[in-house]
Amino acid sequence: MRDFGAHRHPAVLVSRPFEKRPSISVLSTAHDRRVDWLRAGQALERVLLVATAHGVRASLLHQALEWPALRERLTGEHHTRPEHAHMVIRFGYGPEGAPSPRLTARQVLDDSGHAARADRFSSLP
């Protein structure tokens, strides 16, 4: 069982059984240059936005990519062309998480409409 409320009030705890066959994807590029890192980041942004628009939850599983041997095995010899893994993503359905803290436009912009000084951003909860 997975506990989806470990950090919430005990009365709100919800448990669900693990999926029998979770969907796991590897985001990869043909090369491993800086421009590929940028494109992988842009692709990840798009994937996460589309998943969110369709009510699909995503978990980023980056730990395996921190070990070169594991990263190579994700997209290595079993593929027809060499690829370079940038992110492992688990997709599924589940309860909506808590929203991220956000500043209002007034908190970010000064009175003239320009970006406020960085020290004003310390008000994030």
From TrEMBL:
Source organism superkingdom: Bacteria
InterPro entries for the chain: Nitroreductase-like (IPR000415), Nitroreductase/BluB (IPR050627)
Ranges of compositional bias, category Basic and acidic residues: 108-125
GO function terms (MF aspect): oxidoreductase activity
Coiled coil: none
Record region (Disordered): 98-125
Protein name in UniProt: Putative NAD(P)H nitroreductase
Species in which this protein is naturally found: Streptomyces alboflavus
Source organism phylogeny: Bacteria, Bacillati, Actinomycetota, Actinomycetes, Kitasatosporales
